[in-house]
């Protein structure tokens, strides 16, 4: 009993520490960011790239930019309703993803950045530096200790289908998943309402956390269609 109490106390202190960090803002919370960025730029300048000398992107001449930010208020409300134990479970598995819910989209910045977009690499290029987050930078930004920085990540030959991935993440049946998948243009999506209902009603706390993380990735990190 005493040992259990000590462990809970340490966890509570760690959670309070995270709350204090969040108050300081998103950009200045990780001390290693500058060091990781410097390392990344140095390596890139040493190794170079495969683009032909003199390559200039013509994207700016024919690109129309429309910036729309999804309403993340419901995600924030769910996060605010969770107790410390559930939040700590999320932090342990997914790092500081919830910080992204408070990041504001700067429309003017995105329009200015368009001229630096490099369609050949699908990233922003500033002179000889490509703005592509590395595994190390993701680890530093999100404090996600689950990343294995000494492991080579490659695309699997046989990937599970979209529906199979959802079955694994949500813990729901194939029939439940199939009934909620929508086709939006070239992409298959799931309505946010379906994920929200699942987060609020799922009996498995770990699955609640997994679906919440999926929602952040789908609505914030890799958005495809509004409301999905």
Automatic annotation (TrEMBL):
Pfam families attached to this UniProt entry: DUF7745
Residue ranges constituting the DUF7745 domain according to the UniProt record: 75-225
Highest taxon listed in the record's lineage: Eukaryota
InterPro entries: DUF7745 (IPR056647)
Annotated PANTHER family: AMINOTRANSFERASE-LIKE PLANT MOBILE DOMAIN-CONTAINING PROTEIN, PROTEIN, PUTATIVE-RELATED
Protein's name in the database: DUF7745 domain-containing protein
Organism placement in taxonomy: Eukaryota, Viridiplantae, Streptophyta, Embryophyta, Tracheophyta
């Amino acid at each position: 009993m005493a040992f259990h109490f000590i462990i809970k106390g340490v966890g509570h202190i760690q959670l309070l520490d995270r709350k204090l960090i969040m108050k300081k803002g998103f950009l200045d919370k990780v001390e290693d960011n500058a060091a990781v960025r410097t390392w990344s730029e140095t390596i890139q300048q040493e190794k170079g790239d495969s683009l032909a000398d003199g390559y200039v992107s013509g994207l700016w001449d024919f690109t129309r930019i429309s910036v729309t930010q999804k309403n993340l208020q419901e995600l924030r409300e769910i996060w605010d309703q969770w107790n410390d134990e559930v939040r700590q479970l999320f932090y342990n598995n997914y790092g500081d993803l919830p910080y992204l819910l408070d990041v504001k989209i700067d429309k003017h910045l995105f329009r200015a950045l368009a001229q630096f977009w490099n369609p050949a690499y699908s990233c922003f290029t500033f002179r000889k530096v490509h703005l592509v987050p590395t595994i190390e930078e993701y680890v530093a930004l999100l404090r996600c200790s689950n990343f294995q920085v000494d492991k080579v990540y490659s695309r699997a030959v046989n990937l599970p289908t979209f529906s199979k991935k959802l079955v694994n993440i949500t813990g729901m049946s194939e029939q439940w998943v199939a009934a909620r998948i929508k086709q939006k243009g070239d992409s298959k999506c799931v309505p946010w309402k379906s994920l929200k209902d699942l987060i609020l009603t799922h009996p498995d706390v770990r699955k609640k956390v997994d679906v919440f993380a999926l929602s952040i990735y789908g609505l914030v990190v890799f958005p495809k269609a509004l409301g999905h």
